[in-house]
Design brief:
- It is a single chain.
- The chain is built from five helices and five strands.
- β4 and β5 form a beta hairpin.
- The longest helix is centred in the last third of the chain and has 77 residues.
- It has two domains: about 55 residues, ATP synthase, gamma subunit, helix hairpin domain (Helix Hairpins, Orthogonal Bundle); about 220 residues, Pyruvate Kinase, Chain: A, domain 1 (3-Layer(aba) Sandwich), CATH 3.40.1380.
- Strands 3-2-1-4-5 form a five-stranded mixed sheet, sandwiched between helices.
């Protein structure tokens, strides 16, 4: 049975833990505010960029071809970009995206692309550590990038996948990341980066653009920038989702710590009451013995 000192020490330890988790929750909330502002301001740009590129790619003229639009008949080499966080203590945030990527590699790829070799570009420390221990080929890792998130990192990743795709080294590139929906909801998604596909629009409106200098020159410029933007958006989404997941995890941990403190305090009071009762019984017993 635990002594009073043991219970007091445990209460002190849990109180210290509650202070730490509460502080981490406030830090995550502050970081989430900045991350949310960044992704909210990026989404309209990305959506409009996608719309314009979809209209251009959907009406591409016959005498134009760009390597990023190449659609291989057989997928022989598939590359996946997996974006995780650099740190833990964010609930199932990393587990969800790594599990989805692993299921895609082990189940989807053998069924849909039986001849495909799979390579990985892990982004974030947790993803890098996970695939470093696996048997999958790692093209290049990008750990410890979310401490100071920079657009140049997205450009570096985009250069690797676009150069490999244009040189026929890769046949398809997918990206896995957590998408920020709300503070209490993050969704794990998988999207195709390459080859670039034109989105199907439900609108019957046909956009008539005036091109200067030419449609081909414009496509040559915006296609690589489009890949940069998609990867950057994925990193921003993952960053915002990570802070939201960590804030909720730390809030839950703080609540659980406070519940445990109340339970330990009750146990301490019961043990202390039992100790006092025992001492009183011993005193009464000693007095009765002296009388006898």
């Amino acid at each position: 049975m635990a002594t009073l000192r043991d219970i007091r020490n445990r209460i002190t330890a849990v109180k210290n833990t509650a202070k730490i988790t509460s502080a981490m929750r406030m830090v995550a909330a502050a970081k989430l505010r900045r991350a949310q502002e960044a992704i909210v301001s990026t989404r309209p740009y990305t959506e409009k960029f996608t719309e314009v590129l979809s209209n251009l790619a959907g009406t591409t003229f016959e005498d134009y071809f760009h390597p990023l639009l190449r659609k291989p008949e057989v997928i022989k080499h598939l590359v996946i970009v997996v974006i995780s966080s650099d740190r833990g203590l964010c609930g199932s945030f990393n587990t969800n995206v790594l599990r989805l990527a692993q299921q895609y590699i082990e189940q989807t790829v053998p069924n849909e692309f039986p001849q495909a070799k799979v390579s990985v570009i892990p982004v974030g420390r947790r993803s890098s550590q996970f695939f470093a221990k696996s048997s999958h080929t790692v093209i290049q890792s990008f750990p410890d990038i979310f401490g100071q998130l920079q657009f140049s990192t997205a450009v570096d990743i985009a250069e690797i996948v676009t150069n490999g795709f244009m040189n026929n080294e890769f046949d398809q590139v997918m990206i896995f990341n957590n998408e920020f929906k709300s503070i209490i909801k993050q969704e794990t998604i998988c999207k195709q980066l390459l080859p670039v596909e034109s989105a199907q629009s439900n609108s019957s409106i046909v956009h008539d653009y005036i091109f200067e200098p030419s449609r081909g020159d414009i496509m040559d410029v915006i296609l690589p920038k489009f890949i940069n933007t998609l990867i950057w958006k994925g990193m921003l989404e993952s960053n915002a989702a990570e802070q939201a997941a960590r804030m909720m995890a730390m809030e839950s941990a703080t609540t659980n710590a406070r519940d445990l403190i109340r339970s330990l305090q009750l146990s301490y009071n019961k043990a202390r009451q039992a100790s006092i009762t025992t001492e009183m019984l011993e005193i009464v017993g000693g007095a009765e013995a002296l009388k006898a």
